[in-house]
Write a structure and sequence with these properties.
By secondary structure, this protein is mostly helical. It has two domains: about 200 residues, no CATH class; about 60 residues, Alpha-Beta Plaits, CATH 3.30.70. About 55% of the residues lie in helices and about 5% in strands. A two-stranded antiparallel ribbon has the order 1-2. The longest helix is centred in the middle third of the chain and has 25 residues. The radius of gyration is 19 Å and the shape is globular.
């Protein structure tokens, strides 16, 4: 793995008030999007940032046994808000097909704003924390019984998500240009309600089925989720990452073994690098697991890394 390393003072700034910083970030996003689109967006992003900040605060200050409850709190409060209020009540399809329809209509609204903030520009600052803390699909998947990942299926199965991404775009383009299907994107649209409902049922069905087939809660995230495609690009340059202190590491590798995304956390630590893998969802499982307290979330600048370090299933 090649890297360009900045001096350590530029790479590591540990914010003791990370929840406050996250909240302020979302408030700023709310102000900007409200000015560009609709005033209600200030309330929308303030709520999401507030729930995220509360979950982080809970996770930081809870006992080791209860730290994950902070993340689950954020998953539920944000995930249900996105799915039930914005989706079923406001009938806004925040799935990737909704993004394509809004883009084809040429409007800066709905899923375009959501994806711009959480999937394109957001990962440059907070990585793939949306996957770990606020995704309404993982909100369900993290309740499944397979709490420890068996590792990645050997082979390049992660490329399937890129095919899914292309198919999603292809289907929408065919409907829009080939069949002249232009759904009503505004107000209480029955079209968007059907896209949201049927799409989520398919996602949940496939994701849960794959989890049981591979005994891995996050299998859908690793191999099939199309939303991760744009997120992985920005996540490599994220300011927020997991950082480790190699002098405290006892080489138990518990951080890697319990990582739901199979990131080789210990290797990054021993190499003196922050966890730069674009597969990291910043769920903090490794931070909570480390028996020596060698890991933490930090803000900083890093070098450019050429590949992910992930753990595959052992050969049988």
């Amino acid at each position: 793995m090649t890297s360009l390393n900045f001096p350590r003072p530029l790479r590591t700034i540990m914010p003791k008030n990370l929840p406050i910083l996250i909240f302020l970030l979302f408030v700023v996003v709310g102000i900007v999007t409200a000015a560009l689109a609709e005033p209600i967006l200030l309330l929308n992003f303030t709520y999401i940032g507030g729930m995220f900040a509360l979950g982080l605060h809970w996770s930081q200050h809870a006992s080791k046994r209860n730290k994950n409850r902070g993340r689950r709190f954020t998953q539920l409060t944000v995930g249900l808000y996105m799915l039930l209020f914005l989706g079923l009540f406001a009938r806004q399809n925040m799935q990737i097909e909704g993004l394509w329809f809004w883009l084809l209509e040429g409007a800066f609204a709905g899923a375009v704003i959501h994806y711009s903030v959480s999937k394109v520009f957001g990962p440059l600052i907070i990585g793939r924390s949306w996957c770990g803390w606020t995704c309404w699909t993982s909100m369900v998947l993290d309740t499944l019984p397979f709490k420890r990942s068996p590792g990645r299926v050997p082979g390049k199965w992660g490329w399937v998500r890129y095919i899914h991404f292309a198919l999603s775009l292809g289907v929408v383009l065919l409907l829009w240009h080939g069949l002249s299907y232009h759904p009503d994107m505004h107000g209480w649209s029955l079209d968007m309600l059907l896209w949201l409902s049927v799409g989520n049922l398919l996602y949940y069905g496939v994701a849960i089925g794959l989890a049981y087939a591979l005994k891995d809660n996050r299998a859908f995230c690793k191999y099939l989720c199309p939303v991760t495609v744009p997120m992985k690009l920005g996540a490599r340059f994220s300011l927020l990452k997991v950082e480790g202190d190699a002098s405290l590491c006892n080489n138990c590798d518990a951080c890697s073994k319990l990582c739901p995304m199979d990131v080789k956390v210990q290797k990054y630590v021993l190499d003196g690098e922050r966890v730069a893998s674009s597969e990291c969802i910043l769920c903090s499982r490794c931070v909570q697991t480390c028996p020596k307290g060698a890991l933490k979330l930090s803000l900083g600048l890093d070098g450019i890394h050429s590949q992910d370090q992930v753990r595959q299933q052992p050969t049988r």
